[in-house]
What does this fold into?
Amino acid sequence: MGWQWFHRLGSPRWFYEKTDAWMPWLAVVSVALLVIGSIWGLGFAPADYKQGNSYRIIYIHVPASFLALAGYYTMAISGAIGLIWKMKLAEAVVKCAAPIGAVFTFIALVTGAVWGKPTWGTWWVWDARITSMLVLLFLYLGVMALQEAFQHQDTANRASAILALVGTVNIPIIYWSVEFWNTLHQPATLKFTSESTIDPSMLYPLLTMIVGFYVFYAWVLLASTRSEVLRRERKTRWVNELAAAKAE
It folds into this structure.
């Protein structure tokens, strides 16, 4: 019984019908958290004693960076499930997670550059953290390219899943780069295994934004996957019945 939910994920129809009720709630919660976190962080959190107001970009940069990494794991795990169990839904998730992850990675890189100019005196430097994040963007783009490079969807699914799995070696490099190498990028100030070095008045709005970004990611990924499921299952009876019901 405990694994029944996992086996049900093999049914695109079950996934589509199950997630239908989730979409409005995810939308409302994500928008609410992002609005509250933005106003709290940009309007009420105090200025940093060294960086002044320029530090406020962390309320976008940090959550986007988190989602860039977490999104890649989502894509890679889905790819592994698709390779092992041939699960259609997992294959659809790989395709849908790639462009979303690429957008978050791009946002992390751009906001990092905007933050770096007044803080470090440069827009870009080829240090370990920034370079490995750029590699992450290329990995996302590579998965997207493989999805469009093959005529047969099954071949595209396998190639994308393999690249996603191989690319996971880059994630630990990104995470530990500021610890193992002497980089321009500062070490992590938000820590889950020890006390954070960021003041609570700045930390709480940041945590609100992080949770908001994660809920937003879930909302967008589910919406994209639902659309992909309909596209892939467009010739099946249940999709035709669904289309007919909406047309009435």
User: Anything to note?
Assistant: Residues 23 and 219 are 6 Å apart (CA to CA).
